[in-house]
Amino acid sequence: MNAPFSGLELLPTAVAVLDADLVVRYVNPAAESLLATAVKGLLGQPFVPLFDEQSELAKTLADALASHWDYSAQSLTFLRPGHEPLALVAMVAHIALPGTPLLVELRPIEQQLRIAREERMVDQQAANRELIRNLAHEIKNPLGGLRGSAQLLERELDKAELKEYTQVIIKEADRLQALMDRLLTPHRTPRLAPLNVHEILERVRSLILAEFSEGIAIRRNYDVSVPELIGDKEQLIQAILNIARNAAQALRAGRAAGVGPARGTIEFRTRIARQVTIVRRRHRLALELQVIDDGPGVAEDIRDKIFNPLVSGREGGSGLGLSLAQTFVQYHQGMIECDSRPGRTVFTILLPLG
Hints:
Blueprint: E1 14-18, E2 24-27, H1 29-35, H2 54-67, E3 71-78, E4 86-94, E5 102-108, H3 109-156, H4 160-184, E6 193-195, H5 197-211, E7 216-221, E8 229-231, H6 233-256, E9 264-278, E10 281-293, H7 321-331, E11 335-341, E12 344-352
Helix pairs in contact: 3-4, 5-6, 6-7
């Protein structure tokens, strides 16, 4: 091992170190893996000709050498004989090592796009929560007055058929009150304790099968080696239940519309993910929990908005289930993603384990 670069050996990110002539003097194991090229095929090679964007890359590296500044987010295409070109994002940093002044970090562009998408989702969720919280507070006060006035009016009415109208007002006020309470409840601090994720999934499974007793099967695909995680049991149950209930409702609606299988399937899948980045934080281990269904899929017009409050693909839906699920998962430093097409919808929850 080259002593000056020993600290780079364990990095999960691919890095290459260049000399002043822009020749590769070191690559770490992650770079070998990413580029699918053995170290002996990279060391001593001019760095710029390895990529398609040679003139832009050469200028960037020359500027970094001349001015000792760091440059980030240059798109590159790595040319691999016998393989498809590999799209990458490169970050260039000037380092204080004699003879090897430049360090280049390489990431697959898909990973960079995912990180940016996660950051946008976190910012959007924070804004949504604040907006909904303010709205809920504003709505709760007049709701109480509305309900009280309807009750007073009901006492003055003699005809039973007129009282039906006041009952409608009271019941709708109660429904909206319950909705506002649901919007405000996620803001309590999580109660953290060691948890077995499979016990949580079994609880959710029993609740879904009790609510949707016909036409749905739930398949377990568990990795029993998944360690305990630290979390709030009730919040995680509610988050996964909201996702699973969404899946079950989509399966039932698809069956009623003649779309999808007569007996739908939901799969609970758990795996260990290693060296995972969740919103720019690197985690040695993470839980990858997936809820997979074979229903009609998420409508294309709301696919990018399903985690926003009050967005629902189901008639009569409140549009809060997935928003609350995202909120609870984010309280655990995690993230939810959705990939959907007709016949297969996958909600993936990533939760850090270490």
